[in-house]
Amino acid sequence: MMGWRDRLNSWRLPVPDFEIDSLTSALLVVDMQYSDAHPDYGLGKLFHTVDPARASYYFSRLQDLVIPNIKQLLDFFRNNGLRVIYLTLGPRLKDGSDLSPNFRRRYRREEEALGFRVTFPKGTYEHSVLCELKPQDQELVINKTANGAFNSSDIDRILRNLGVETLVVTGVGTDVCVETTARDAVDRGYNCIVVDDACATLDQESHDASLLAFAKWFGKVESTMSVLDLLTSPD
């Protein structure tokens, strides 16, 4: 079966290309929270209830591939004094009324159908980043209240203040919050690299389709090792 990279190789139009300066690059870790990336909480509990097969795929990929690769990228960025920024998803208010009406409606229907909570406000344990990827004291954690960070936070102003030009994007889900944030970043003039083996969603088909579309039109899609090579290559 033809993979997404094979399909990209048959693409007849130019694909996005740009120079990368490690000093103006930042690692973006998207929604690696207990509510989104742990099998016992929030969406993990939801997935295991409504679609155990997809849940098994998703959490196996997270544990075996995504979390180790994000750790490797974190070590590189931290050891080289480069920027690390985390995104989290959830309301600031306990009743969730600061979420968009579409988000509130979806979460309310899910919670009514399942009988347990699937979204958690800032400050709760479920909203926090997984302990194995815990942010360090000088690393920004930016909360968003929608899929895309640029639509629901002040990330654009922060990145420009920091002088960031390139984002290395990791996390979940590939075809939802990762893709939305990365596409919006490109539209605002940032260079973006989505890290294939440091992202996950509920099935391989959706993951691959998202990466193919992004690589055609928006930015680069690279493996963890390729990103490290790009960031250490001499100018």
Short description:
The chain is α/β, with parallel strands linked by helices. It is built from 10 helices and 6 strands. It has helices at residues 4-9, 34-37, 42-50, 52-79, 101-114, 149-152, 155-162, 174-187, 204-217, 224-232, and strands at 25-30, 83-89, 140-144, 166-172, 191-200, 220-222.
What report would you give on this structure?
- The protein has 235 residues and is α/β, with parallel strands linked by helices.
- The chain has one domain: Rossmann fold (3-Layer(aba) Sandwich), CATH 3.40.50.
- The chain is 47% helix and 16% strand.
- The chain has 10 helices and 6 strands; from the N terminus they run H-E-H-H-H-E-H-E-H-H-E-H-E-H-E-H.
- It has a 6-stranded parallel sheet with strand order 3-2-1-4-5-6.
- Helix 9 (204-217) links the parallel strand 5 (191-200) and strand 6.
- The chain is globular.
- The N and C termini lie far apart (37 Å).
- The model has no long low-confidence stretch (mean pLDDT 94).
N-to-C SSE string, H for helix and E for strand: HEHHHEHEHHEHEHEH
| End-to-end separation | 37 Å
Task: Say what the CATH topology is.
Answer: Rossmann fold
Approximate helicity band: 40-55%
- The 3D shape can be described as globular
**Which oligomeric state applies?**
single chain
| Domains (count) | 1
CATH homologous superfamily identity = Isochorismatase-like
